[in-house]
Amino acid sequence: MEWEVVIGLEIHAQLATQSKIFSGASTAYGADANTQACAVDLGLPGVLPVFNEEALRMAVKFGLAIDAEIGKKSVFDRKNYFYPDLPKGYQTTQLHHPIVGIGHIDIELDDGTTKRINVTRAHLEEDAGKSVHEGFDGMSGIDLNRAGTPLIEIVSEPEMRSAKEAAAYFRKMHSIVTYLGICDGDLSQGSMRCDCNVSLRPKGQEEFGTRTEIKNVNSFRNVERAIEAEIARQMDILEDGGSIVQETRLYDADKNETRAMRSKEVANDYRYFPCPDLLPVIIDDNYIEAVRSTLPELPDAKRARFVKDHGLSTVDAAVLASDRSLADYFETVAHAANDYKLAANWVQGDVSAALNRLEIGIAQLPVSAEQLGRILQLIKDNTLNNGGAKEVFNALLEGKGDDTAASVDALVDSLGLKQVSDTGAIEAIVAQVLADNPKLVEGYLNTPEDKRAKAIGPFIGLTRKAAKGVNPQVVMDVLKKKLSELG
Amino acid sequence: MYNKTIADIARDLNAGEYSSVELTQSLLDRVEQLDSTYNSFITVTKEQALAQAKAADERRAAGNAELWTGIPIAHKDIFCTNGVLTSCGSKMLSNFVAPYDATVIDKFNQAGAVSLGKLNMDEFAMGSSNESSFYGAVANPWNTDCVPGGSSGGSAAAVAARLVPGATATDTGGSIRQPAAFCGLTGLKPTYGRISRWGMVAFASSLDQAGSMTRSAEDAALMLQVMAGFDAKDSTCVDQPVPDYSATLEQDLTGLTIGLPKEYFRDDLSADMQQQVRNAIAEYEKLGAKVKEISLPNTHLAIPAYYIVAPAECSANLSRMDGVRFGYRCDDPQDINDLYKRSRGEGFGNEVKRRIMVGAYALSAGFYDAYYKKAQQVRRLIKNDFVEAFKEVDIIMSPTTPSPAFKRGEKTSDPVAMYLEDIFTIALNLAGLPGMSIPCGQVNNLPVGLQLIGNYFDEARLLNAAHKFQQATDWHQQAPADIA
After folding, report:
1. C-alpha dihedral sign at A449, A454, A455, A460
2. Is A276 close to B99, i.e. CB distance below 8 A?
3. Which of A14, A131, A486, B260 is the most buried (most CB within 10 A)?
4. Sign of the dihedral through C-alpha B187, B190, B195, B197
5. Mind listing the pLDDT tens digit for each residue in A241-276?
6. Choice among B151, B155, B196, B343 that is catalytic
7. Any catalytic annotation for residue B286?
8. Is B368's CB within 8 Å of A49's CB?
9. pLDDT at residue A101 greater than cutoff 60
């Protein structure tokens, strides 16, 4: 039978607020356990939550970026369950009245087309703490630093039809939230996590099959692999005439398989009800428009502009626009060089290679956009040739020079990379080279006319050796002229 | 000295009649001598009290005294007090030393008041007799076989027994007004949102409100002046100007319209109780007030709605008492579920467990609409009744309780009979309105309370009406026989 895959994702993105969603404690990652948890985060008797307006602003910003309805009245609810790293015994979240309603994003498919994926809703909620099971002598430790970190949970419609589409959707969401600056997007620190709902149905059938939910997948690659593994598992069962059990599963990346989480005897009843400690959040059009005015150019718009206004290829534009810091870097370089194509070649080439080799992000690259921009300027005015430019770039990568654009010029000088284009100077050097190598000259003169183009090579090498940074085109012209004068 | 009101003490301290240390020491001695009978204190903070009194006297000597400087009071053990046991009357918090001060506590500290300690209460403020406390029942100073009412029974007994001139208290369904009525005191429950709930251990968040237990309306005004005001730490606290409550106490009552809800003067209210309340109303008429019968047609829905909303909220509020981070933890837990089950099973008393169960049930899937949602709708109806009534009248009056203080043990086996104790008080909490109870007579040598209900943030009018009544009568000055 031919099966159709149905995938919906729930993405949790930590909002990049300074303090927690309902307390003043810091949200910074990596502090000593329980040093960033105040009385509110600990759920001590008598404490009360106060909603962090910055989290609201960020959630609204997200809603506007995906062209969603904004909830003018959103309500926080308590979701009740016991867990040691959930200090109050309930999570404060939004059930019936989320801050963000129906919206959508477009993902790019391999065939170059785009597909619209609808977003059901996105709501604000607080993150839980962490249970630590090692190092406590058979007991568990609780770290509440993360407790109360603001999250938006973004729920998609079940509209993805392959693992690839799901991964593209996750990537696109990552791109959007990082563009907006509302999430640092650091998957390794759990800043974005994804639950994947997967089901299969016979092709052509309207009704959905039974789904499973793969919890907490935290990389683009694993989203794709986990879903593929789960599709294969479900297909095996269905092909054998079996049925799928609705359950929560975990992806084991080492074994590349999903496995059922400890099954709960009965479904949890979370006994949701509106949190009486928090008032409904009421916002008006003025507020929404004020937030809208802070929206940056988003990836789709930027990509289109790169192609339309600057003549980049769609592939280059897509890559360069996918990540805001990369796009910002690229545009700074392009502006400085006044040449988008040259900048695109360099960022896609040497810069990208360096990032991969050093395993760093663009923010950590030792060569600033201003410096690379200066290098490209020097290429364009013939001060540097391509080899010299690479040499300066590599020197900066190795930490030579300071972080100013001026240090590019200093390095060009100190490394003697300035291209000599002065014909008179080059003529003198060439004359010397020819005088020093009479046998080579003789050999050249004995070479038939049609093979001389190749025989001129050694002279070029010698000339460039004798004077670093000579403009190769000028050298060629002078050599041809001088040699033809000799016969 | 112990018979003095807060206003008296403020004058005496200023006049140098006695020092704060002398007064504090004498009250501490009195607590030590008498409180084994009443059991109104859970914790006496003797050294801290004397240190505060000494600091107050020094401040006075330096000429920097303010009204509250050096005045001793005590706090219901529901308010978190930094460095002091905050038990909430429960075994669950019998080891909980709060690491911070409630806003109410902080405000009294800032005002210069002296705290003698923490007062007994029904466990987590759930009860109407102060019999559910882990620290034992509290005796009514008027008749030690009787209950003082609850949940602020310790506050009421301590003030009635003249151990302190005033005490903080809280009211979720009548927990200030009913014990005030039972102990012949002036109890004030302000508008929901008038006083910060920060640091007040939550029972039912949408109903809980801090207030005071005093021996006069004049003192209630002084206490409210300290406690009232916006607090950014409580999202439900209302940013509304705080008037000078003492300034309007003496206003003439001529023309005041009093509404008497017919639903509160039912036939099953005893003739004696009716009479006491009617006498008080007649007194108001003498003071120039007009009386009008009104109807609050949804009154009969208040108790059922309350016993959905309050348990539902408490079931979530008390989830944090899980034995993991603070409070009681069972011995030798086998795993996390065992830790939860036994810590909570052993740490909570029966009434608390009953309400958690009721609340969890009311919120469970499939029942939410029928119970919690319906109860919230009823709440709106009850509120609308009052809104309509206040278009016609300035103040509403009723008995505070159906009967005077009952005997200890009389209702402990019948939770519903106990819940009906709050039949006249509970609607105000559902509506968020301010209310007072003032002594207005006696039945069988036990005090009877008159309930005054005001419009939103109209505490000044309540205090004014109560004060004028107390100027004309002496019920509030009556003390239990053993005391006077």
Report:
1. positive
2. no
3. A14
4. positive
5. 999 999 999 999 999 999 998 655 446 799 999 999
6. B151
7. no
8. no
9. yes
| B400: nearest Cα among B181, B229, B137 | B181
Three-class secondary structure assignment of chain A: CCEEEEEEEEEEEECCCCECCCCCCECCCCCCCCCCCCHHHHCCCCCCCCCCHHHHHHHHHHHHHCCCCECCEECCEEEECCCCCCCCCEEEECCCCCCECCEEEEEECCCCCEEEEEEEEEEEEECCCEEECCCCCCCCEEECCCCCCEEEEEEECCCECCHHHHHHHHHHHHHHHHHHCCCCCCHHHCCEEEEEEEEEEECCCCCCCCCEEEEEECCHHHHHHHHHHHHHHHHHHHHCCCCCCCCEEEEECCCCEEEECCCCCCCCCCCCEECCCCCCEECCHHHHHHHHCCCCCCHHHHHHHHHHHHCCCHHHHHHHHHCHHHHHHHHHHHHHHCCHHHHHHHHHHHHHHHHHHHCCCHHHCCCCHHHHHHHHHHHHCCCCCHHHHHHHHHHHHCCCCCCCCHHHHHHHHHCCCCCECCHHHHHHHHHHHHHHCHHHHHHHHHCCHHHHHHHCHHHHHHHHHHCCCECHHHHHHHHHHHHHHHC
Question: What is the C-alpha separation between A390 and A353, in angstroms, rounded?
Answer: 12
Q: Please name each of the domains of chain A with its CATH number.
A: 3-288 (no CATH), 299-414 (no CATH), 423-486 (1.10.10)
B365 interface with A at CB cutoff 8 Å: yes
**A461-464 contacts at long range (C-beta below 8 A, 24 or more positions apart):** A462/A433, A462/A437, A463/A426, A463/A429, A463/A430, A463/A433
Helical segments of B262-349, H only = 271-286, 302-317, 336-347
Backbone angles phi, psi at B399, to 5 degrees: -65, 150
DSSP-assigned letters across all residues of B172-222:
SSSTTHHHHHHTT-EEEE--TTSB--TTBPPSSTTT-EEEEEESSHHHHHH
Smallest CA–CA distance, residue A264 to chain B, in Å, is 13
Marked catalytic residue, from B40, B115, B128, B175: B175
Give residues with Cβ within 8 angstroms of A405, minimum separation 6.
Answer: A336, A368, A370, A371, A373, A374
pLDDT for residue A262: 66
- Residue ranges of chain B with per-residue pLDDT less than 70: 484
Residue A273: what pLDDT?
Answer: 97
Predicted confidence band of residue A455 (pLDDT cuts 50, 70, 90): confident
Name every residue whose Cβ is closer than 8 Å to that of residue A285 and which is 6 or more positions away in sequence: none
Quote the tokens at residue B92: 């669950």
Q: Which residues of A touch B327 (CB under 8 A)?
A: 45
Instruction: Evaluate if residue A365 carries a pLDDT over 90.
Output: yes
Q: Does B370 touch chain A (CB under 8 A)?
A: no
Rounded alpha-carbon distances, angstroms, from residue B268 to B264, B272, B427: 10, 11, 19
d(CA B227, CA B196): 8
Q: How far apart are the first and last CA of chain B?
A: 12
* Mean predicted confidence (pLDDT) in A99-124: 95
pLDDT in tens, B242-296: 999 999 999 999 999 999 999 999 877 889 999 999 999 999 999 999 999 999 9
Inspect the interface and report whether the beta carbons of B363 and A88 lie closer than 8 Å: no
- Look up tokens 């509209």; give the residue: A159
What mean pLDDT is predicted for residues A97-104? 98
Report how far residue B83's alpha carbon sits from residue B423's, in angstroms, rounded to the nearest whole number.
37
Which member of B4, B19, B76, B155 is catalytic? B76
- Which chain B residue's Cα is nearest to A78? B316
- CA–CA min distance A142, chain B (Å): 9
